[in-house]
Amino acid sequence: MPIVDVSSEVAIAYETFGDVGDPPVLLVMGFGAQMLAWHEDFCRALADRGRYVIRYDNRDSGLSTKFHDHPVDTREFIAAVSSGDIPAARAMAPYGLHDMAGDGLGLLTALGVRGAHVVGSSMGGMIAQTMALSFPERVLTLTSMMSSTGESEYGQASPEAQAVLSTPKPADREGYVAAAERELVWSSRRYGSAAVLRDLAGRSYDRSFYPAGAGRQLAAMILGGSRADALRELRVPTLVIHGLDDTLIDPSGGERTAELVPGAELLLMPDMGHDRPRELWPRLVDALAAHTA
Predict the structure, then answer these.
(1) Distance (Å, rounded) from C-alpha 163 to C-alpha 285?
(2) How far apart, in Å, are the Cα atoms of 68 and each of 62, 113, 123, 137, 184?
(3) What is the mean pLDDT of residues 40-44?
(4) Which domains, ranges and CATH numbers included, belong to the chain?
(5) Do 144 and 132 meet the contact criterion of CB atoms below 8 Å apart?
(6) Assuming Cys at both sites, which of 16, 35, 77, 289 could form a disulfide with 55, CB separation 3.0 to 4.6 Å?
(7) Which segments within the chain are labelled E, that is strand?
(8) Burial level of 154, CB count in 10 A (0-12/13-18/19+)?
């Protein structure tokens, strides 16, 4: 697995699929997840449509740089945010979404790619939006998938999904893999699969079990704030994809994103939750291929 320095303090692990001469598509993963969550077969299916696909581990996940020296006490951080003490919360967070956006763009630079079609999922959608807002000249198109705008009124998790998200997973492999089944609460009601969730959890655990990074990524997300005003001014061609079964980020998050971005296309997917079931890959790949043409 190649790893490249994208700044003086961050190295990013990545993998590519397809012909380097084809239009580049950068896949940005979400909170606490590794690049493995962009399944290699999904990446190959997109590459087979004539795209140079790049997936990577965000900082603090997978094989990319870990910020061991900056522990974040999640309870203390949430307490500071809840009480309105944003300066104290910011002091706890070693980086923000803008820094994570810089990692992805730094990876493109290291690969000799000036501009790319950027596809972000969940927190990755927030990072991808930040890339497009901060460096529009480098984002050929934006796809924001199962994400939101940072406004508290939109895209809220259901109580059941929030409970699963906030419950720490066991540290042993067997317990960690078994706990992955809890994520059925936000998966496709029709295609959600405990076996698929367990398989990804097992491969992720074996590759890099690192729960400490989640607190820092969570802090970056929360402190990202609302992007609403900036999204109203965005002129990058935008596709918004959201599953109608999503209970982790309610579909209102995607609907609001498409409402704000001028000319954005909204694709609401029946039978998709906060996941990408294999059964829906043909439609997703078709949509991405058309948008990145």
Answers:
(1) 32
(2) 14, 30, 21, 33, 31
(3) 98
(4) 3-156+211-291 (3.40.50.1820)
(5) no
(6) 35
(7) 3-5, 11-17, 24-28, 52-56, 116-121, 139-145, 238-243, 265-269
(8) buried
pLDDT at residue 19 in the model: 98
* Res. 1: pLDDT tops 90: no
Arithmetic mean of pLDDT, 192-202? 98
Q: Is residue 139 helix, strand or coil?
A: strand
Cβ-in-10-Å burial (0-12, 13-18, 19+) of 226 comes to: middle
pLDDT of residue 280: 98
For residue 229, the number of C-alpha atoms closer than 13 Å in the C-beta half-sphere is 2
Q: Which tokens belong to 162?
A: 């929030």
Q: What single letter denotes the amino acid at residue 46?
A: L
The residue with greater pLDDT, 200 or 73, is: 200
Compute the CA torsion angle 78, 226, 125, 71 (nearest 10 deg): -30
Looking at residues 44-72, what average pLDDT do you find? Answer: 97
Task: State residue 178 phi and psi, 5-degree precision.
Answer: -65, -40
CB of 28 closer than 8 Å to CB of 120: yes
Residue 74 confidence (pLDDT): 86
Distance CA 28, CA 50 (A): 19
Q: What is the spatial distance between Cα 143 and Cα 120, in angstroms, rounded to a whole number? A: 6
What is residue 146's DSSP assignment?
S
* Distance (Å, whole) CA 293 – CA 290: 5
**Token pair in block for residue 83:** 């009480």
What pLDDT sits at residue 73? 87
- At 88, the pLDDT band (50, 70, 90 cuts) reads very high
Provide the 8-state DSSP code for 13.
Answer: E
Phi-psi region of 238 (alpha: psi -120 to 50; beta: other; left: phi over 0): beta
Q: Is the pTM for the entire model greater than 0.85?
A: yes
Residues in the chain: 293
